[in-house]
Write a structure and sequence with these properties.
- It contains four helices and seven strands.
- The chain has about 160 residues and is an alpha+beta fold.
- The chain has a seven-stranded mixed beta sheet with strand order 1-2-3-4-5-7-6, with helices on both faces.
- It is globular and about 40 Å long.
Length: about 160
């Protein structure tokens, strides 16, 4: 089976919303103060149409298995983007796609002129945190920006 990473299209919205939300249910993650309740989660294509934002999906034969993107970090200077909504369906995990998608997002961020990439995650997502650390993200003491994700207790930053 051939997996491809491509930019999101409007017809991917329902499938990627389902991937994101089912990950929260499966891992028993908090539903409030997280991406679970973001309005963007219900309209992902539309949420990444601004300049200097992009969202990629991982697709296998028309089925969306995961995704992740970057966007200007809310309320901070223009040089910082945020890695957002990186979620994979259970059968995609542990196969190296996280690394592939992460490097595609970081490369896109560099091309768009960002100097730093910020992310927020949940301490339960140990594999994700370890992936971020391996790729040069460092822990921060406090959150940046104003993401509204008050349930996320891990904040990281990488110089691009």
């Amino acid at each position: 089976h051939y997996m491809r990473i491509r930019e999101i299209q409007v017809e991917d919205n329902l499938q990627i919303e389902s991937v994101i939300k089912s990950t929260f249910i499966e891992l028993r993650l908090p539903l409030t103060g997280t991406a679970y309740e973001d309005i963007e989660t219900t309209r992902m294509f539309e949420s990444y149409q601004e300049e200097k934002s992009i969202y990629f999906v991982i697709e296998e034969q028309g089925v969306i298995k995961g995704g992740g993107g970057v966007k200007l970090l809310t309320s901070l200077d223009e040089s910082i983007c945020e890695l957002q909504k990186m979620y994979f369906s259970i059968d995609l995990r542990g196969k190296g796609y996280g690394k592939k998608l992460l490097s595609k997002c970081l490369e896109a961020a560099r091309k768009m002129g960002y100097k730093y990439c910020y992310l927020e995650t949940l301490s339960q997502l140990e594999k994700a945190i370890s992936l971020y650390k391996q790729n040069g993200f460092e822990n921060l003491e406090i959150p940046y920006g104003n993401t509204g994700h008050n349930s996320c207790g891990v904040w990281m930053l990488k110089t691009l």
